[in-house]
Amino acid sequence: MKYPTIEDAVGKTPLIALQRIGVADNQRRGNVVLAKLEGNNPAGSVKDRPALSMIRRAEERGDIKPGDTLIEATSGNTGIALAMAAAIRGYRMVLIMPEDLSIERAQTMKAFGAELLLTPKSGGMEYARDLAEQMQKEGKGRVLDQFGNADNPRIHYETTGPELWEQTGGRITHFVSAMGTTGTITGVARYLKEKNSAVRIIGAQPSEGSRIPGIRKWPEAYLPSIYDASLVDQLVYVSQDDAEESCRRLAREEGIFAGISAAGACWVAQEIARTCENATIAFVVCDRGDRYLSTGVFPA
Questions:
Q1: Which family does it belong to (predicted)?
Q2: What is the 3-state secondary structure (H, E, C) of 263-283?
């Protein structure tokens, strides 16, 4: 008998209905708001899907082989997922991360055996991405490049999108996703639009001055090349305060222990619901709240 491995535990995550937040108003309008629990993946986030996809496909092409060094700039979730995938498949993993991101993320990456390089807070993810490219040019390893690697949105086209379609019985009308690397929103949007071109795709982005881990508004020069703006119907801006309050509400009112970017997507989904009737709105709970405990978002 062949038993499943940890890789087989990635994907097929639950889609559940919110029971309290906004429910009374949504019921009056005939709406339902659904949460895709990607924190149920083994390394705790939606990034488990592209992490394994990028490594597997690179192996299939002969670009990398076990024992090689992989390099990636990350704000956290992709780094954790890649650290897990590298541990599973036998790679040395070097992750580059801005120094101001949560200590839980750094500790989790190290637990999986990854080596961590911290970059100045002032440089943000842009500096981390530049350093990764520089290290690759110097022959220090291979950059998988979540921001420009087609195997990132491809796995969401192949798995996340079909799961949402099947779990809603094809009734999904709106899909909301936080936008970071944009792999999730691009891959899912492509699949859902092929199934029903009327499905609305909404991206959650941070309002001016907000710093929400996992959600980015990139300068034009750093906009991920995998992003396809033609697939996104609307951008909604969420403030840091609204995202953090939604994070606390999800935990205490819904029992959903989610990260701040996931809560930002939830806030956007509720805003969209106020403008709709008879809608089935799904948003991505991209990670769990335990990797944000040191940020102070949850009361001590």
A1: Belongs to the cysteine synthase/cystathionine beta-synthase family.
A2: HHHHHHHHHHHCCCCCCEEEE
Decide: 72 and 78 in contact? Cβ < 8 Å: yes
Point out the least confidently predicted range of 82-86, 120-124, 250-254, 289-293: 120-124
Per the structure block, which two tokens stand in for 17? 């209905």
47 is catalytic: yes
When mean pLDDT is compared across 2-6, 15-19, 70-74, 125-129, the lowest value belongs to 125-129
Active-site residue (options: 36, 47, 75, 102):
47
Q: Residues for the chain: how many in total?
A: 300
Nearest to 117 by CA among 140, 86, 91, 84: 140
CA distance 189 to 229: 10
Per-residue pLDDT for 98 more than 90?
no
| Cα within 13 Å of Cα(240), Cβ side | 10
261 carries an active-site annotation: yes
Instruction: Give the Cα-Cα-Cα angle 12, 147, 34 (nearest 5 degrees).
Output: 35
Which of 75, 102, 246, 261 is catalytic? The answer is: 261
Q: Per-residue pLDDT tens for 167-186? A: 999 999 999 999 999 999 99
Q: Is the pTM of this model over 0.85?
A: yes
Tokens of 227: 């992003």
